[in-house]
Queue: 3 jobs
Job 1
Amino acid sequence: MRHGLIIVNTGNGKGKSTAAFGTLFRAWGRGMRVCVIQFIKAETGNWGEIRAARKLQIEWHTLGDGFTVLSKDIEKTANRARHAWELAQEKITSGQFDLIVLDEMTYAFHERWLDIAQVIAWLQEHKPAELHLIVTGRDAPPELIAFADLVTEMREIKHPYTRGIKAQPGIEF
Amino acid sequence: MRHGLIIVNTGNGKGKSTAAFGTLFRAWGRGMRVCVIQFIKAETGNWGEIRAARKLQIEWHTLGDGFTVLSKDIEKTANRARHAWELAQEKITSGQFDLIVLDEMTYAFHERWLDIAQVIAWLQEHKPAELHLIVTGRDAPPELIAFADLVTEMREIKHPYTRGIKAQPGIEF
């Protein structure tokens, strides 16, 4: 029987979301039913990964509004993140998926828009045993790391911005 | 103008190749021309990522023979890795690609099947300026890190094998 893993990609480096999308690609290759819920990324973005998902008819929800620390209406951002979790709960219990990516969800814990203890308690009760979940984002809370099966920290060793090279389409977004 | 990045995903954790495949997915979403050359992975594998690539008609070469430290015929493995580099050189200079993934290439440096100084000198002379390259694998040599634009270390924080959970199809392979 399949053992649904709780996977966490955290750290200050690149590759947290990207590795989640790589897993999605791999799972999709095996005919698994996959879904992405993005907690932060703005709906209006025209990201390479969203274009790819559209081409492949992968279910993909962008529920954030492009949160930054300078966001003018933080309560609106918080509400969008809470709405993303409600949608995630619906998808998790739907029985329609084998793998769900909760992209940049950790920010919602960090900003206290969501309570980590409540989220874990809900998952323990409601997550189907076979369903794989991937949670990405910086500063994963210790409770989430304790709860997870597979945790990887992506550490930045060297970044092109520091060499004056701009973000490259198709590579970084 | 596009600045072709040299990207290195290294470290002892999961997600080195997976993040490369995520970038591939993203770049493919933008209509970029992508190609993968795997230095170690055996041709006979029926991996989720290869199935996905086949569905998307992405050019994908598996030139390894599933190298392990217990491999019986190490010279054969070495020759396959050298052949992978020859193919990579051909693809790099072909003008047919925007992004090429050199998956698990670092093992070839580590095992001294390829000379890192020679490879870098060749890239400096022959790599088109706009072409992005991603090199993955443990123990990336310092020369490669110095040469790269973007380097991420994937660190294992927690792994399900240590909890007695087997590798899960579609997630880890």
Note: Residues 13 and 156 of chain A are 4 Å apart (CA to CA).
Job 2
Amino acid sequence: MLVVKIGGAAGIDYTPLCANIAELHAAGERIVLVHGGSDGANQLGMRLDHPPRFVSAPSGHVSRYTDRQTLEIFMMATALLNRQLVEQLAGLGLPALGLSGLDGGLLRGRRKDTIRIVEDGRQRILRDDWTGTAHTVNTPLLTTLLDAGYLPVIAPLAVSAHGEALNIDADRGAALLAGALGAAALVLLTNVPGLLRDVYDPTALITHIPAAELEQFQPLAHGRMKKKLLGAAEAIQGGVPQVVLADGRRQQPLSRALRGEGTVIA
Amino acid sequence: MLVVKIGGAAGIDYTPLCANIAELHAAGERIVLVHGGSDGANQLGMRLDHPPRFVSAPSGHVSRYTDRQTLEIFMMATALLNRQLVEQLAGLGLPALGLSGLDGGLLRGRRKDTIRIVEDGRQRILRDDWTGTAHTVNTPLLTTLLDAGYLPVIAPLAVSAHGEALNIDADRGAALLAGALGAAALVLLTNVPGLLRDVYDPTALITHIPAAELEQFQPLAHGRMKKKLLGAAEAIQGGVPQVVLADGRRQQPLSRALRGEGTVIA
């Protein structure tokens, strides 16, 4: 069992990934594909005169401020990507089945009703935020679908205890899924070769991080890489033996990641 | 087993329907909810500077001309409605699970690569159209989900033999589903009381149509009602014993439809 997460950045060609998934699926591998959608949501928000707003937490993590309208834009943008991926996989003959974490209580989460942000050097509180953190996977639902031969493609939403839809971080959602499903590996595909010692030098790839030392590498992570390392740490804590951060922009991105071409955390 | 179809017109309050579904679900009824989304797609298309274009077939049926960009707008708009419905049902404690006909090959259809239209009194051919007609239901997938206790909420897409996403008519899709699932009834909720003898007189409701005489009532149908009667006929042909066209804008719309408040075709 593999859990694979891909980003949703503009202009990504998903053809190599889908072809690679088809190869592994044909070889009997069970795969769950999780995707992002932030960039699509940003673009759609701009076109709908509701541009994205990003906020920084005191910890330095940057996240999207999700008012209700932004949540609906996020729902639409992630659904479009989800359906495009399902369509592309279906075109290869794969029984792809798109879900969001909202469906059937697939990902249950806690809503952050208020978030503490840092703006102009000061901390303040934002309300009406529809982001959250997933904490529980409806594993029987996924197992039922996997047993029936389907390839789940999952959009980064969760459902709160009150039934509310929540925007969640896809890397951390994928980590939670990988742990719940007992995946042999979590592969986080991105648009860089992996974790870099120097963010400006793509050849400065860190090829291996012992799981116990992951914390020490956190200072090297910038921007979204912070969430990927956080997701990696959560997956390891959840019992996933191996997490690979790897480049999703090349041929056979998944097989290459599994061969260790990237940053392997184990 | 009931299959219920609701429209996607602007300003619809889905609260009464969702509450009614919760009552029937609690009483042990199996329900599949199918929704439209044309109006949401029209509005989104306008906002994204890609307004809808409707075309008339020689038969008089009016349908949306769906170029690729329109298909993607349709995907987003129907997904938003799907997720809003799932969210509202989840808020009532129901295990709603959103899918489109694309997912897991739920609805397989034929693409109309070219469509014949009537424009300014002349027939011509349009290409690059992404509409289609569903012909096959993945019944085992739905049965698996229903057996596991889920309440499927289905967006009107189908998948072609080549894996392409297709915009399908939701009334006819619901009819196909009702037949495949052996539903006791198909309820088509709309914004009129049912089929009217006089489209301008909401009190001129036709309360009962013997299934064998349905054809004779076709001339009374205008606009979208044509597709509803076509769907009703297809459901009856598919073995569904009862189809009800009823008003979705009132309290307990489903229970009232099942009590015969609407146009009952049986």
Note: The two ends of chain B are 16 Å apart (CA to CA).
Job 3
Amino acid sequence: MGFEVKAMTDHDVTTPIDDLEAVEPDVRRPGSDPGPAACCVPVSRPPGYLDNKQAHLRRLRRIEGQTRGLQRMIENDEYCIDVLTQISAVTSALKSVSLLLLEEHLNHCVAHAVQNGGEEADAKLAEANAAIARLLRS
Amino acid sequence: MGFEVKAMTDHDVTTPIDDLEAVEPDVRRPGSDPGPAACCVPVSRPPGYLDNKQAHLRRLRRIEGQTRGLQRMIENDEYCIDVLTQISAVTSALKSVSLLLLEEHLNHCVAHAVQNGGEEADAKLAEANAAIARLLRS
Amino acid sequence: MGFEVKAMTDHDVTTPIDDLEAVEPDVRRPGSDPGPAACCVPVSRPPGYLDNKQAHLRRLRRIEGQTRGLQRMIENDEYCIDVLTQISAVTSALKSVSLLLLEEHLNHCVAHAVQNGGEEADAKLAEANAAIARLLRS
Amino acid sequence: MGFEVKAMTDHDVTTPIDDLEAVEPDVRRPGSDPGPAACCVPVSRPPGYLDNKQAHLRRLRRIEGQTRGLQRMIENDEYCIDVLTQISAVTSALKSVSLLLLEEHLNHCVAHAVQNGGEEADAKLAEANAAIARLLRS
């Protein structure tokens, strides 16, 4: 599938990133005790997206390539509508990454805090809700 | 506060619903033990939005009035751009309601399930993540 | 086709409004001379959505019914996630209406002004662009 | 958290792109006759965004830098919520670019086609409406 980085040039901007579902699932079970190293605060502990880190980096490298492709389209005076179509594709790809990161954050960081309870649980829930509102309004 | 229903006619479609923050906060503390009646599954238990039920109903009645106002605008052949502006206002109001409902759901239903752990926790987290994705794509 | 108003109760909130494409197309040809009565300014002239007025009213009545259905769901303490799913459906339906109105506005009102040229053309284009930005950010 | 503005490299991912309004305005007057070289079809003619080409390239280079900053955040195991905040910023920046490109396309390419009339006008309007729908749904 199209995540072969070596076969991907910057110019390959039109391939849709619809294969996010095909990525290997998170091996940690959400909601179950994520263990001492699985919560993303304090910073010395790994973040919720740890198990999918390489997959996220591949996606972001691809998105970076798409933004370079957009610059090349503008430099080459390509047609406005084609540029707009490509921007829609990049926006959708970013949205997919944000949904995956948010899911991992809820399943690990927030779930871990809620299991421990107390003020940390309240704070993590409030923070996640604020992030969801920002995503919905961006 | 602009939620005086009696003073609100259907035609009052242009007043922005920006006062959602002014609504009385949820009295239940998120993340803390919501007690036996505070989780929204099974159906016999009250939903996460219980404490703010009347506020949500006021908001939705107002949105219903806005949709009637939209029909009146179309019937009266009002200017396209004015209709579009009003649709943007209704969409924003719906988005605000959905963010409030989602927040209460995470703080109560999901938090409760996560504290109990097991498969129910996993299911509630997966369900919430799917709902967030639907909101972001609607 | 789900637009039979007589067969539609308020409770029919879950039926998707995906049949917008099935609506009869605008009979006026976009871009061609819309004639003296086809531009939406001044107000004494009919708006760009004139030919589809009844279809828009049917859609908005349906959306109004959906907002009443939402209130009934909240009154009945229905499950948060089901309410959120329904809000996503209403938001999508409103987005479809706004895209149709915008299309008619561009095809008739803006096109007419551009054909006439001058400051009115500039003003109509600027106004349409502002409306698109509002839609994209609502 | 490496957000020192004075050390602004690609890593400076949090600076908001709010300066879009400050960019020099398009010197061509929308709606007025854009002249023989101002329509974006056929390809041998410059696109609608020609006058702002350098400004768009600057914005896209900045967005490319932001996507590299995102990768660095993931590589450094930075906090999920901080990554999500940054993704919201990139999405908003892309949305701003798309609105500017769309505006220039309507003001030049579409306006030019509409002034010429005929099937080309219809085609350009239909194409623009489809692009707006894609943006609103991405």
Note: The CA atoms of residues 13 and 66 of chain A lie 5 Å apart.
